[in-house]
Design goal:
The protein is an all-alpha fold. It has twelve helices and no strands.
Length: about 400
């Protein structure tokens, strides 16, 4: 069945939230260059100047950023199904996710390889003269038994979301065959769970069981094309939550707006407890039985609380169109795609400077943001690439933001 209804007006709050989450990717990926403690998955680009604030900032952003993305992604998939049907949703997702991945992954892969090589050469030789024959290949691919091309890099989100969308298209006919009484029961259970002040606790249990399979209790993004099942399950839980959220959006959105401050404070406190316990364990001052499970439980409990807080705060305060936020939302897809090699390249440029990490970090964040927005405005916004990413081309205007328009692409 083909649906010809236009998409309903987009909630500007969710567009703005998605844009901010995209930008926080820059902060996150700059922060990992300057962390004091080693990351669960070692990366070869790392500055000798470090800061514990970078560790805290990375942990904070990592706790909610991708979960919020997957919740919003599931929400918009159902919106597309209602507006265009299952077939229309699938065509849209393949065009907006699959095609950009196929076309841009090789470009970003090459850019990442060269910027990482430059960074590593800068660290090992102290110069910009690049002689690949003198580099240790293990520095570029630190994960054992991994083929260099088996890496979706930071684009793993596009890859995983595309397959989640395909799975929705396959399973929707089966879901419609479920008896109405059972569907009603499941819907009521979700509504009570997602709307309860303590609903985050049962939602955390499956995530904690998955996280307990990892040393630190946190499921990392491996970037493999065939990622471990645990990664699909972990991210899939948030995606399914977003799918179910659409049908209950009126009541739950009102609840999240009302409770956003409480959720934010509670999430921050829970995450702080988790990080404090982790630090005490690193210093051998505390022993926790089944530590990986409890780390995972606290971390994912903070994830739900902070995700609900972000959604509620944006719905409450940033739900109206604004020219600057509208522009940032339109540029966010391109910024997400291009930012990673830029952060690594600027990190290499700043490496030899004897400046504190807390000076280098904002310089890298600012430089990456400016570069990403300039390339979007000059090379993407009014071109075929912009139409591919955003579903339309915008008239080229130099240093001028036009009035907000209703965005009709998901």
């Amino acid at each position: 069945m083909t649906h010809n209804r236009p998409l309903p007006d987009r909630l500007h709050a969710l567009d703005n939230l998605r844009a901010v989450m995209m930008w926080l990717g820059i902060v996150l990926h700059v922060g990992i260059i300057y962390t004091f403690y080693p990351l669960p998955l070692p990366l070869p680009w790392h500055d000798g100047k470090t800061s514990l604030l970078a560790d805290w900032l990375v942990a904070l952003i990592h706790s909610f950023r991708m979960p919020v993305f997957f919740i919003l992604a599931g929400f918009f998939v159902v919106l597309l199904v209602h507006a265009r049907g299952v077939r229309g949703m699938l065509v849209n997702r393949l065009k907006r996710l699959g095609l950009p991945f196929v076309l841009l992954w090789p470009v970003i892969f090459v850019a990442m390889v060269w910027t990482v090589m430059l960074f590593v050469y800068r660290v090992t030789h102290g110069t910009w003269v690049l002689d690949p024959s003198q580099l240790d290949p293990s520095l570029l691919t630190p994960r054992a038994n991994r083929h260099p091309l088996d890496d979706t890099m930071h684009l793993w989100f596009l890859w995983m979301l595309m397959w989640f969308s395909v799975l929705v298209a396959v399973l929707t006919p089966l879901a419609r065959a479920v008896p109405q009484r059972l569907r009603g029961l499941l819907s009521r259970c979700f509504d009570q769970l997602a709307g309860s002040a303590w609903g985050f606790l049962p939602l955390t249990i499956p995530l904690a069981l998955i996280g307990a399979m990892y040393k630190d209790g946190i499921v990392p993004a491996s970037g493999y094309f065939l990622a471990p099942v645990t990664e699909w399950l972990h991210n899939g839980i948030f995606f399914v939550f977003g799918l179910a959220l659409y049908a209950h959006r009126k009541r739950l959105f009102a609840i999240y707006q009302q409770r956003w401050k409480h959720n934010a404070v509670a999430g921050f406190v829970v995450l702080t407890v988790m990080l404090t316990v982790t630090d005490l364990q690193r210093q051998h001052l505390l022993t926790v039985p089944h530590a990986a499970f409890w780390h995972a439980f606290l971390f994912n409990a903070s994830t739900w609380l902070l995700s609900f807080a972000w959604i509620g705060a944006f719905l409450r305060y940033l739900g109206r169109p604004h020219p600057v936020l509208d522009y940032l939302a339109q540029s966010s897809y391109w910024v997400y795609i291009i930012h990673m090699p830029v952060t690594v390249g600027l990190g290499a440029c700043l490496y030899s400077l004897d400046w504190p990490a807390l000076v280098k970090m904002p310089l890298n964040i600012a430089g990456t943001t400016v570069f990403s927005l300039l390339t979007y405005h000059l090379l993407v916004r009014s071109t075929a690439l912009g139409e591919l990413l955003n579903g339309r081309r915008y008239p080229f205007r130099l240093l001028r933001l036009h009035a907000p328009v209703s965005r009709q692409t998901a």
